[in-house]
Amino acid sequence: MNSFALKNVNHIYGSGSAQVHALHDVNFAAEAGTLSLVMGPSGSGKSTFLAIAGGLLTPTSGTVEVNGVSYTERSKKDRDALRLDSIGFVLQKYHLLPFLTVADQFELVDRVKPQGNLDKDALNDVLTTLGIKDLLHKYPDELSGGQQQRVAIARALYPNPTIILADEPTSALDSPRVAVVGGLLKDLAIKHNKAVVVVTHDTRLIDAADHLYEIKDGYLSKKANPSA
Ligand SMILES: Nc1ncnc2c1ncn2[C@@H]1O[C@H](COP(=O)(O)OP(=O)(O)OP(=O)(O)O)[C@@H](O)[C@H]1O
Ligand SMILES: [Mg+2]
Question: Which residues are paired to 219 by β-bridges?
Fold first, then answer.
């Protein structure tokens, strides 16, 4: 079972008059084998939602369950292991390490998590699909924004996570690349039975989605089936 759920999640940043109620009673579930798209404008709560879903941020109230067990019921060790082994993040800021070449970004993953990562052929396929195979010897500041974004996507997929959480993974890409990334994420969901959740304001990704949600001012609602 590769699934997770948010139940009655609220999140408030700050205190007193500076409070921002970023998420309001959010309920959400994602299953293996599906790609869910959460669409919303800037400031609507997308990154907050994703950080809470992945256990990077603890909600002010409500629970988040991964494979039926909430983060709060897990020990810190268990939570860390879950994040390392099961959850792949594509973060809004790409978080590539500036002093490492693209190849070394992957090697670093091997050091932190020596087992269970994609084998050479599978990684090669991902690099080829994303069109970044020739960039392995380059440093992040020698890459364009779109190239950095595609390297960050490949790095998130490399540990072969069962849950993939992506924050605006196509913001720096042109339309043909958006279609490639949408197709890749959809393949991961369907062929590799992963639960994929993408938050974005990029309507070009709608075609790839199985489930479509809208988030507005911190309120999440389900939209009609995108393929219907
Ligand atoms: N660390 C923080 N401290 C205080 N307020 C915050 C913090 N992070 C986000 N917010 C506020 O919470 C709300 C939701 O922010 P969030 O980053 O989740 O939006 P978003 O939909 O990801 O926006 P964008 O599309 O610009 O990335 C916004 O009003 C934002 O200003
Ligand atoms: Mg954001």
Answer: 216
Domain topology for 2-222: Rossmann fold (3.40.50)
Whether this prediction's pTM lies above 0.85 is answered by yes
Dist CA 137 CA 102 (whole Å)? 6
| pLDDT per position as a tens digit, 153-209 | 999 999 999 999 999 999 989 999 999 999 999 998 998 899 999 999 999 999 999
From the alpha carbon of 18, which atom of ligand 1 is closest? 4
Q: Concatenated DSSP letters for the chain?
A: ---EEEEEEEEEES-GGG-EEEEEEEEEEE-TTEEEEEE--TTSSHHHHHHHHTTSS--SEEEEEETTEEGGGS-HHHHHHHHHHHEEEE-SS----TTS-HHHHHHHHHHH--SSPPPHHHHHHHHHHHT-GGGTT--GGGS-HHHHHHHHHHHHHTT--SEEEEESTTTT--HHHHHHHHHHHHHHHHHS--EEEEEES-GGGGGG-SEEEEEETTEEEEPSPTT-
Please report which ligand is nearest the Cα atom of 49.
1
Say how many Å lie between the CA of residue 39 and the centre of ligand 1.
14
Instruction: Calculate how far, in angstroms, residue 196's C-alpha sits from the geometric centre of ligand 2.
Output: 17
Rounded distance from Cα 18 to ligand 1 centre (Å): 13
Q: For the chain, which residues make up each domain, given as ranges? A: 2-222
